Amino acid sequence: MSTTAPNVPNVTPEEPTTENDSLADRLYTVRYDDAGDSHLGVTVPGICAEKCHSYDCTSVCPADVWRKGEDGVPHIAYENCLECGSCRWACPHGNVEWSYPTRGAGVSYKKG
Amino acid sequence: MSDDVRVNGEEPTTGEGGSPDYDNAFDAIVVGAGLAGSAAAVTMANEGLDVLVIERGRYPGAKNVFGGVLYTPTLRELVDVTSAPVERYVAEKRFSMLSERDETAVSLRPGEWHDPPHNDSYTVLRGEFDRWFAEQAVEAGAVLVTETTVTGLLRDDRGKRILGVETDRPDGAITADYVVLAEGGNSLVSEGADLKSVERAENIAVGVKEVLEFPGNDTAIPDRFRLSDDAGASYHYFGEGAVGDAVGGGFIYTNEDTISVGLAYRLADARGRQPKPEQTLNAFKSHPAVAPLVRGARTVEYGAKTIPEGGHESIPKLIHDGAVVVGDAAGLVLNNGVHLEGTNMAIESGHLAGEAVVEATRRSRTDEAALRSYPERLESSFVVQNLERYGWLMERVEADRDFIFEELPHALADAGAEYFRMDREPKEEHAEAARDRVLEAVGGWRGAAKLAYRYREVIR
Ligand SMILES: Cc1cc2nc3c(=O)[nH]c(=O)nc-3n(C[C@H](O)[C@H](O)[C@H](O)COP(=O)(O)OP(=O)(O)OC[C@H]3O[C@@H](n4cnc5c(N)ncnc54)[C@H](O)[C@@H]3O)c2cc1C
Ligand code: SF4
Ligand code: SF4
Hints:
The structure holds two protein chains of two kinds. Chain A is an alpha+beta fold. Chain A is 21% helix and 14% strand. Chain A has helices at residues 23-28, 45-51, 56-60, 86-90, and strands at residues 31-33, 40-42, 66-67, 75-76, 96-98, 106-108. By secondary structure, chain B is α+β, with helices and mostly antiparallel strands. Chain B has 15 helices and 19 strands. At the A-B interface, helix 1, helix 3, helix 4 and strand 6 of A face helix 3, strand 11, helix 8, helix 9 and strand 15 of B. Residues 40, 60-63, 65, 81-87 of chain A line the site of one iron/sulfur cluster.
């Protein structure tokens, strides 16, 4: 096979681009009413710190609510939560405490 | 947030602590004003039952995200849909395999879908639709309370019969003869009351979705998706270009002047070192076959939600003394790659459960046996029939995942490229090369025959 570039007419190949909003901008599109305290938590912090190596709560969350902390216990930015429920099932140790924000607080979708 | 009770119709009498005094005022309490809940409420209210619907969101739909297509065969029997807020009817279904760079697609545009009732398939936005559907229940006589979360079930002294619900309002216990659990897949109340067990992550899909608009470009949707008037499109994507090496797929649905773009894949595949769902969505939107469809779009809303996809085997016990479980709370979703249907099953199950409750009230009974017509009729309806029929498919897809999601999209794209290759060789050689490429992927003629046998029931 020849290594020189093929002799072709002058056309420009497509280079698809998509501008994706940042997560912060995306989260900004949904209304959030703060219930005042977190509807999410960990049951036993020691399990996160000592037993857990996968930190699945952080990898599955579509809203970057769970962030690995220096002490090995995740920080929970609950006011980002889209209430999808993923972290509840994903935690291999069943260590996620999950309740609904009270009285209509939390996320509100207009479109859904 | 205001403390007043948002009730449509009459204001309830207010008891101590600012909570409405609803005790014993209702025949049935419905937990959740989603599709299953409103279907049950309409059915019961139409038959003269006093129904209370409790919704945790600021309005029905405020907490609900889905892909997009609402299936309406049962809905049309229940309510007058002429004023329903639908976006477009589905005039095209397109199935597309994406490898990293390639796309191989099949499109179906049956002429019949342009005629009413449009194959009972319409794109909707749940924030609008669920509100409307709940209003139909209120018009039929049901009472709707929003901004109220059911936190548990009340039981009799023996811990057996369900007597009502506990809510997050002050003095928030409310009793009724029946409770309809229509709380969706994240069913904290049913699980908390031991009516069902917690699903495995293998049986849950995480879904992320964006609603996009095209600022300053009014014809982007009809032009890019080849649509006129209220016709709409439903595009489904599989393969590594859609969701990496996860089991699942991507979608684009056209609304009136926005599009819904998203993904759903197994939560078990999102664990560990996988890209986050949001990054997978970005990659999908940037695929060469997808990017031109979303070019210049702006995000109107970002959302996420999970799908219970355990199928037939995950259906919990549906009836209890004083309670029924319906819709996603009962795991009634068909998600097998080709079909993603939960809306029709939610409405059908809510309706059948509502009818069972009506029958039981007529006989003044609240025991489990009196509600038996619900599981029996569900069993013989399309809901359980379809779940049973495709139960095997997900397991097989899981077993063949590398082949289906990676090798096959590549092989088909390569075969297509070979078949249509333009050079100075005779076409016969290209056809052979194309065939060889497919045979290589499927493991020769024997492999092809085996595969055809393994998947024969898809078209049974
Ligand atoms: C990403 C994604 C895409 C999908 N795409 C499609 C599709 O294109 N077509 C299709 O047919 N199906 C689709 N589905 C499935 C479909 O959305 C569901 O099957 C359907 O919404 C189930 O209806 P439901 O009424 O059972 O539950 P939901 O719609 O979840 O409604 C439950 C309601 O209960 C309320 N609630 C929950 N807990 C409480 C509580 N404790 N107290 C008070 N209220 C409560 C919630 O706020 C909600 O309003 C999709 C799902 C997802 C996640
Ligand atoms: S996955 Fe579970 S155990 Fe691990 S860090 Fe997250 S919450 Fe803790
Ligand atoms: S519910 Fe969903 S959005 Fe909220 S923290 Fe869990 S994974 Fe993240």
